[in-house]
What does this fold into?
Amino acid sequence: MASTPLSQRNPAPIIGTVNSTLRVPRIASIIILLVVALPLFGELPTADIRELLDETGAVLEWDEFGRTGVLWGSDESIGFTPGEEIAVVGFSDLLHVEPILYQQGQLLVPESTRAAFADLLGQAPVRLRTVTAIVVDAGHGGHDPGTYQDTTVNGQPVRVMEKDLTLDLARRVQAALRPQVPESLVLLTRDSDVYLELGERTEYANSLREDETDNILFVSIHVNSSSLTWTEARGMEVYYLPPDHDRQVLDPSFAASLDPEVSTIINDLREEEYTRESVMMGQAVLDAVSRQLPETPIERGINVANFFVVREARMPSILIEVGFLNNRQELVLLQQSGYRQRLADAIAAGIAAYVDDFETVH
Ligand SMILES: [Zn+2]
It folds into this structure.
């Protein structure tokens, strides 16, 4: 966005009105000007800079030592120094402003400066990182049915298989998620009844990262079964990898390009970050499910488990067990396409909320 000097945009309206429309004698006009102007300059309306940040979603980078600041908005950046009448827009254009004041650790922005900055900064929250791709993995497939339950539908024997439910749910999650995260690819590890090795699923997800700044999320969908006998257990469970698991999360070629010691440190930091992000993504999914599907108990919550898919995906990754096939109530629910749609909508809403949180700087 181009910057326009403030003086061109707001041609001193109050004083101009007094002079030109009343056409009073010269001395009188000076007195009126003083009367009008004094209260304005006597108590400049200012507001804490945090109000500007709240209003615009911009981020303030403040250098306490150099006493300079940069506001990062969605449309523009503005550099400023308290007490200076010049701000720098987009690191190139100068903008005349009423100076920002720095008093007792507080940055106070005059009203005219706030309005000019708000116009330039834009209104959208600042996104400094984006999720490149979200991989939705339908558990099992092909000759591997996962867990299953034999039941009857209209008097006919039916075998309900985990692999069919996970594929149906994964497709529904993909369709529901796409419009909510238009900047991210939403991909399936399988879109038909085929068998994939666990390593093929995570390798696929890992291969999507073209460089170190790409952020990818991995969500594997499964259906629970504690044993083949009927159970009272029900509800959704989310698993992530225990943080103390020593895994290589850096891309091998990237790791090889680093000093071995540096590589170990970065790997540890990255592993911690992925664990934290996995928990946050899992919590976002559970929150959305408890909001949108009150009939699905989620007190089983988030758990750690050393599943292959969460271990081998070099990214924030969770495994969702959507419910129990050997719980009579949940078996009935999972056989209904309407319930599966609501379940998929809730999972998608949770992932979308997490993506929004991940991309937005607070
Ligand atoms: Zn499974």
Summary: Confidence is low (pLDDT under 50) at residues 1-25, 27-42. The longest helix spans residues 260-292. The chain has two domains: 6-121, 131-359. Residues 139-140, 146, 162, 222 surround zinc ion (CB under 6 Å).
